[in-house]
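User: Okay, second chain of the day. Same drill as before: sequence in, structure tokens out.
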Amino acid sequence: MKRIAQFEKVSNEQFVLGWADCFGTGKGICDAFDYVKLPKRATKGSAGYDFFAVKSVVLAPGESIKMPTGIRVKIDEGWVLKIYPRSGLGFKYRLQLNNTVGIIDSDYYYSDNEGHIFIKITNDSKDGKTVTINRGDAFAQGIFLEYGITVDDDVTDVRNGGFGSTSK
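Assistant: Same drill. Structure tokens below.
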């Protein structure tokens, strides 16, 4: 296996900004940063790195939430981190990422927000099932993949931001 990335916590200041963006100010932030856990694989054969909830949430069918993870990742150039819902949650509740698959590029790490990874999920249950995710539960997983570029690629632009920042 190639070792091509390193997970880190964002700064406390950046986490507070992310929390306020998702949940408003003062609502449970006091100790949430202490509960940020670095993503990890559950077993030696696991491809996915589990991302853990920093807040307990209950999602009725059709409800969504944007979750700050408190995590950033330094990735070698030529690699990408793809984020998916945990398989079991998708199977049982149709839990989905709102952007279907999250793409974390290697240059996102250097953004003004420190590359803070947010994961927006929706309970798309067609059976009326409510999903509960407790603080500390694994709710999403990330897989590193190598990618290539075309022979005539000459891009030199630099990113500064997350969603939509490269199309401005």
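The chain has a mean pLDDT of 92.

User: Thanks, on to the next one.
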